[in-house]
Amino acid sequence: MTRYVFRGLGARKLRTALTALAVVLGVAMIAGTYVLTDTIDEAFSEVFQTASEGVDVSVTGARPAGFGSGQAPPPIEESLLQRVQDVDGVRVAEAGVFQQVTILDKEDERVGVGGAPNFMASVSEPPFDAFRFVRGAPPRTADQVGLDLKTAEDKGFRVGDRIRVVGLPGAKTYTISGIARFGQESSLAGAAVAIATLPEAQRMAGYEGKVDSISVAGDDGVSPTELKERVAAALRGEPVTVRTGEEEANRQASDLQDQLAFLQTALLVFAGIAVFVGAFVIYNTFSITVAQRTRELALLRTLGASRRQVLWSIVAEALVVGLASAIIGLLAGLLLAQALQELFKAVGADLPTTDSVVRARTIIVALVVGTVVTVVASLAPALRSTRIAPVVALREGLVEQRRGRGRRTAFAAVLLVLGLAALIAGLVDGELSLMGLGAVVIFLAVAMLSPLLVRPLAAVVGRPLERVTGITGRLARENTLRNPGRTAVTAAALMVGVAVVAFVAIFAAGLRGSIERSVDSTFPAGNLIVVDQDGFSPVSEQAARAIGEVPGVDTVAGVRFASAQVQGRTGTTPVIGIDTGAATRLYRAEWAEGSAATWGQLGDDGVVVDKNSSIGKGRQVGDRLVLTTPTGERVTYVVRGLLDAGDFSLLGGGIVVPNDRLSRDFNVRGDAFVFVEFARGADRRATRAEIDRLLAERFPNAQSQTREEFKDEQNAQLDPLLVLIYVLLALSVLVSVFGIINTLALSTYERTRELGMLRAIGTSRRQVRSMVRQEAVITSLIGAVLGVVLGVLLALLVSRPLADEGFTLTFPVGTLLILLVLAAVFGVLAAIGPARRAARLDVLRALAYE
Amino acid sequence: MTDIVSATDLHRRYGEGEAAVDALAGVTVGFPPGAFTAIMGASGSGKSTLMHCLAGLDTPTSGTVVIDGVELGTLSDAKLTELRRDKVGFIFQAFNLLPVLTAEENLLLPLTIAGRKPDREWVEQLIETVGLADRRTHRPAELSGGQQQRVAVARALVHKPAVVFADEPTGNLDSKSSADVLRLLRGAVDDFGQTVVMVTHDPDAAAIGDRIVELADGRIVRDEAVVAAQP
After folding, report:
1. ipTM given for this complex
2. How far apart are the CA of A730 and the nearest CA of chain B, in angstroms?
3. Fewer Cβ atoms within 10 A, N terminus or C terminus of chain A?
């Protein structure tokens, strides 16, 4: 029986290969995701190991409870250094600063490939010198910096050149004193780093008397653990965390892993979609195989094969195909990981590269998923094969099996209701995995119901074709209706991918609209908006101050973002800083309680809360909020007003406080956006030119934008993400195209005789090709139409809760139409092979074919 | 009168070397217009190969075939297809109707493929003649074997081809249906002046023709007019 299985696979090479491909892609994405994220983990672990080389003990600020790994530890007092140095067993201790800045190249553009971060680090002496100078010398004065080798090479900087760096006080021009390697590497994981003296680094970071960390090396014979305990004892009561060098490296690595977990999950979701689509293709292929082999299987039964043996022959085939494809997929995943790294680079996320990391988990998950999905998808057809009666072997002609249609529809309807229920429950609880499960069940239910929809849909998409192409279109449409179940499942595979694409497109359109409206509704006035070149990094608070002094400027107001831990709540709450002095002029908000005048009456501890946000629910004016800020500060604020802001209002979603309080209590010294309004009668163009000149001179990382430019820029920030999502979804669509190829190949094969007859009575090859092509187009359009409809419905459902918060659903009709056209194009592409085969048919042999 | 279809010194060899088989070993034959010719012979005599070569479905190893003044050997596949579409009608042993089309649509297929408008009067007359007026919207699966073959006969006639080739048209039919189909072919020749070439191994079927050509081992061994017409 097993030999029979292998013979069968060999005899159906094309079919086997296409089925395998459906599995290969999904598995490759899973394996690729793991390899990619593991490789990134590994690369950064190495980076952190290098950084902590020579460090026996590290002292950093204690991250306040309630803040996640995304929050950098707060700075610590520099004065602690003396106390650490005095600890018995400490050979040498050094304070360090490592903060984000903007480094400018010779054209005054921010350095860093694809948005890689820029840092300023304080210079380190041995044994803490992770940065080693290969040319020149470390910086000795406040006007000197060292530069990492990669940035120096990329941008053509040499020792003695001048270089501009923008920190909190603004831009400063330094002389490059030397070029440094990071450990053995040319850079710190792709980031650009300027190395300055400690006082200069502190000045640029806005750290008066503060540092980020203290590195400690112990005397010989004192173990890091022992030393750690002694340092910790000496610093008891201070808001610091003391770790060994190794622990510190691990902490940094695990912080990063936490943040990468999102990337991993997101990529696995896309891999899951591809696997899900692949399951449709496998199910369909096995269904067709079983149908075509009915006679053969019945013959086996006549010859004495048991039901179990017949079942096994199908399942074993699935097992072999699944395992083989999983292995190929695993290997393909390695290549895909490389490709994904390149893709991430292309859309602006530069990741450090090391050798690919393949963990046992990657291999196990890839093999298990590939094999199990294939076997499970083949189970229904396999079970169907066991119901073939031996007598069928002796009957003439193919036996149509049409049973259980009603039961199947009822079952699908129940599934649909369950899926919707799960989706809605997930929406209500904000439970993403439940929503995902609901969506999967809905897809399955619609796929099961779709045989009923094939006839009307084929008419809708086929009739117009027929009008143009005549008989070939007619036959193509009729051919898709011969076996509605087969067409339905083929189309359903495409439907899944298209539905997700449509859903994403609709949401992206909604988001764009919402961003535009939020800018308009929150800041109805204001002529210019100043932001960082990258669109999201903060701009030094000094910039707003300086712009305010430009002649012709009436009002300047910054908006900044932070988060705080509110007593009695888990997780962090968004805190929005605004310029309350300018508030009445530049911001607009709907008040539930209070008025624009409230901004002026906040005093030293007053705040305004969005009553629609989770923090604002049930709050009253006069309520007290006890907050822990990221610097570990504990402060008590009093609610002075309640906003009725939507989620897409820039002031909504949390606690609004004056900016100076964010500087004082949160150490947040940068504005995300600075809104500028010109004085009445001021020359707009001259004023803007003056502002631009000021920015170029002192804050070259910032740029001014008109409201329209700003909206465009904000929208444009969605684009790389969308491109990435579409590319990942394209892989799922590709899987469903394999399905279409497979179904077409099999169904034209079944119709060999008919094709022979058509050719004999004068149908041209071109007409045969056209017929097969149109069959593919009709099938893919059925899938695309179902997908778009489902995507729209899902978007409608999922956006319901957001609708009250200002998210307005916009239907990107153009995009959706393009999606349909693309689906038709995919159909044409899928048909190339089968159409050619059908057209090349040897007429005589086809007529003799039984 | 000149022949509407003629073959000159046809050879058709399958395979190569020692295993080569000569299905046709020098056949020269002509079919005058408006005649009903039956080609007979045992299995492997070459009768089907002859018909396939005459109809442009198979390419002879040597020799020429001319249909309605056109020599097939010089034609590209596209031209050959066009010639089959316009000048040849086919009737197969296995009916070969498209299951997705109705009886009438199947009947009209050669015209539809060519993108030509049917002559309604002629079509109605055909449907009447083959006795399917009340079956025109039925699909092949809803028709008996005899009915299906009658549709196939009408399909072969609908575009008024130069010649109709019938390959064992009664092979899958009971005796009554066979008689119906043969009568239709006879009628096509007598009433419409159609040229029909029918391959059969059934002497009774062959007897309805005007002339019998018999093949053995790839050669014509008998070529004579049918003396006694219908009883």
Report:
1. 0.89
2. 35
3. C
Q: Do B52 and A844 touch (CB under 8 A)?
A: yes
Convert A479-529 into a string of H (helix), E (strand) and C (coil).
HHHHCHHHHHHHHHHHHHHHHHHHHHHHHHHHHHHHHHHHHHHHCCCCCEE
Name the CA radius of gyration of chain B, rounded. 17
The ranges assigned to domains in chain A are 1-52+249-401, 53-248, 450-521+715-850, 538-700
**β partners of residue B24:** B12
Neighbours of A328 (CB within 10 A): 17
Query: pLDDT digit string (tens) for B75-129?
Result: 888 898 899 999 999 998 888 898 888 999 999 999 988 888 899 999 999 999 8
Domain residue extents for chain B: 32-45+75-225
Q: Which residues of A touch B98 (CB under 8 A)?
A: 475, 478, 754, 757-758
Compare CB distances from B100 to A482, A760, A767 and report the shortest one's residue: A482
Give whole-number Cα distances, B41 to A55, B8, B38, B95, B216, in Å: 101, 19, 10, 22, 6
- Nearest-angstrom CA–CA distance, A327 and A363: 9
Write out pLDDT tens, residues B171-218: 888 999 999 999 999 999 999 999 999 999 888 899 999 999 999 999
Alpha-carbon span A625 to A638, nearest angstrom: 6
3-state secondary structure A372-407: HHHHHHHHHHHHHHHCCCHHHHHCCCCCCCCCCHHH
Chain B interface with A: residues with Cβ < 8 Å: 52, 55, 57-58, 77-78, 81-82, 84-86, 88-90, 92, 94, 96, 98-101, 109-110, 112-115, 155
Do the Cβ atoms of A671 and A537 come closer than 8 Å? no
**Looking at the domain B32-45+75-225, which fold is it?**
Rossmann fold (3.40.50)
How many angstroms separate the CA atoms of B91 and B71, rounded?
A: 23
Supply the pTM of this predicted model. 0.83
Number of A–B residue contacts, CB under 8 Å: 71
Tell if the CB–CB gap between B100 and A475 is shorter than 8 Å.
Answer: yes
The 8 Å CB, 24+ separation contacts for A402-408 are: A408/A448
Yes or no: say if B153 and B130 are a contact pair by the CB < 8 Å rule.
yes
Q: Cβ distance B36 to B209 under 8 Å? A: yes
Q: Name the closest residue on chain B to residue A762, using Cα atoms.
A: B85
Residues A339, A390 contacting (CB under 8 angstroms): no
For residue A691, give the 3-state DSSP assignment: helix
